[in-house]
Amino acid sequence: QVQVVESGGGSVQAGDSLRLSCAVSGRTFSTYSMGWFRQAPGKEREFVSSIRWRDGVRDYADSVKGRFAISRDNAKTTAYLEMKNLRPEDTAIYYCAVRRGYSGNSRHPPDYNYWGRGTQVTVSS
């Protein structure tokens, strides 16, 4: 079975930076993309960023453009989310997900096939 494991979360002050990692193990896929989502208390899960594995085309939510950057390591089947200038409103559980069988990016959670358990990011002012 495919496993998705996030790491790198923590508690930081506003303006600080964090790097999240998403490692995928088990079955490999020839065509897939990876995405980051987040969910704050009392809110629905929202799209943060995604990357197409083959060519590295990226997509970002407006709320994180210019502050977050998604990247990939093909050999390790690992995606990263570099987060800079964090704000209290970024506080959430961050989830990594894998979408297989399609080459395009998606902001729609049901389009993703495999999910990690999440890693907590807390930003205080």
Fold and architecture overview:
There is one protein chain. The protein is mostly beta strands. It has no helices and 11 strands. The strands form 2 sheets. Strands 2, 4, 5, 6, 9, 10 and 11 form a 7-stranded mixed beta sheet that branches. β4 and β5 form a beta hairpin. The protein starts with a strand and ends with a strand. The mean pLDDT is 93.
Question: Characteristics of this structure?
Answer:
125 residues; globular; 51% strand; mainly beta; 11 strands; single chain
Structure at a glance:
The chain is mainly beta and 125 residues long. The chain is 0% helix and 51% strand. The protein has no helices and 11 strands.
Structural class: mainly beta
Percent helix among the residues? under 10%
Task: Please summarize the sheet with the most strands.
Answer: 7 strands, mixed
What gross morphology would you assign? globular
> What is the CA-based Rg, rounded?
14 Å
Spans where pLDDT lies below 50 across 5 or more residues: none
Distance between the termini: 40 Å
How would you spell out the order of helices and strands? Answer: EEEEEEEEEEE
| Count of DSSP H/I helices | 0
Strand tally is: 11
Mean pLDDT: 93
Report the sheet-strand fraction.
Answer: over 45%
Q: Based on the structure, what is the oligomeric state of the protein chains? A: single chain
Write the layout of secondary structure elements.
Blueprint: E1 3-7, E2 10-13, E3 18-25, E4 32-39, E5 46-52, E6 58-60, E7 68-73, E8 78-83, E9 92-100, E10 114-115, E11 119-124
Parallel strand pairs: 2-11
Antiparallel strand pairs: 1-3, 3-8, 4-5, 4-9, 5-6, 7-8, 9-10, 9-11
